[in-house]
Every structure is written in C-alpha cells, then in structure tokens.
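Translate sequence into structure tokens.
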Amino acid sequence: MNEADAVERVDEPVTVASLADDLRALGVEAGDTLLVHSSLSELGWVAGGAQAVVEALRTVVTDAGTLVMPTHSGQYSDPAAWSNPPVPESWVDIIRESMPPFRPAVTPTRGMGAVPECFRTYPDVVRSDHPTVSFAAWGADAEAVVADHALDDALGEGSPLARIYERDGRVLLLGVGHDSDTSLHLAEYRAEIPTATVSNAAAVLRDGERVLAEYEDIETSTEDFPDLGAAFEREVGLAEGPVGAATAKLASQRALVDFAVEWFEANR
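Result follows.
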C-alpha cells in the first residue's frame, strides 16, 4: 500500500490523540502488559507514521504498564535454509563467517514492520539478546520481560512470551491477523504434539568478542494460525474494533495460549 492509498482510507489524518482514543475504546488500559503486532499501512495515513503509533501506545499503557513488541532479525537464521530468496550454496559459508555479531542496540529488525523497528530505537526501550527472535520492551517490567532470553527453544519457556504469560498480559493485533501472533508459538512448545528439531548458529558478542553461538529449537509453523485464531474468536472471544482505519483485536494472552495448546493437540 502506497501513501496515496493510505490517504484514501481515512477522512482526516490519524494522529497520536486519535489513536490513543481508539486504543482506549478497544479496551487497552494504563498498566497493561501488552504485546503488540502491527501493520502501519493498515492504519491509514498517520501523522508521524510509526513514531506516532509508538507514542500513542506508550501514552495509553503508561510507564506503569509494559509495552512489548517482537523485534526479530531473520537475517541471523541459517542461510542454508533461506528460501525467499535462496542464496547460492557457495555463499553460505561466506555469510556465516562475515555477518557482524548481533547487537541488541543496533541490529535492525527484518520483516517486522515499521512500528517495532521504530520502537526498538527509543533510548528507554530494552531488547532481549536472542539473535533471531528478540523482543523489545518498555515500561515497569521491561527489564524482567526481556532478561535471560534462552538461546535454545527461543519462543518457549525461557522467552519473553512466557514472561508475558506469567504477568497475565494481553495481545493486541493492530491491523494484522492471527498468523502474526507470536504467542501461538509458545503454545507449540507446551502442546504434546510431534515436533522436529532444527539447529542454527549465529554471530553474537561475548565479552566483546564475536563468537558463533550454536543452538537448537523446534520447527515451528504459522500455517494453521489463522484457523486456530478463528476458532478462538468463535469459542472464547476477544475485543474487536477500529484503530485508525485498521481492525484491531485485543485478547488475553493466557486465554489464547491455553486454548491454542488444546487446539494443537486436537488438530495437529
């Protein structure tokens, strides 16, 4: 969607104030622990773009709450497994050997959208140190949410997703569907379903030196997330309403994950 399309989607500019009003009307509250997945283009023309969205979210959640976003960096996954696009086999070792080490403060996100990329650059935002599936957080429990992000099984019990679950946080889908909901990956780890193991190695900094960190994980999939999400909406329910020009959905993460565990066990 280009900027002209964004203008056509709204009668007047979307602003920090109007976004904050819409978020409150949806049910977002001060003090929430809120995991946000977003699409800036779905909101219509926003005065200030991604920064305005971040400002609105911070205004509503307040520093008494905790705002969290995925800040994944897929460029640190195994280049031998890349498919969109694949790279020549002769490149793989060169990429592995030459990638600069992942650095939470500066390494950009990849494919996550403009809002989390903007959010991670705020000086009072902290980011977990997993090289491929980090999360960034701001607010009262930010440090606790992103600390000690496990290398192995990175979206499981040692992840920020589990820390959000412990705090009875909520998930905000801001112009995106359930296929973007990282919390459903936590359910993949908890469900008693067959899983394959995959290995990866990524360059990180340890004691100021570049090292190649090796780790293992389960093979995750988002293919059935839309069906799972639709079942959750039918059987459990969530809040839904407009934020800017987008349709937003707000749900209990704990309810969503618990439902997903049972759904995976019944349907995978």
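Note: The chain has one domain: 3-267.
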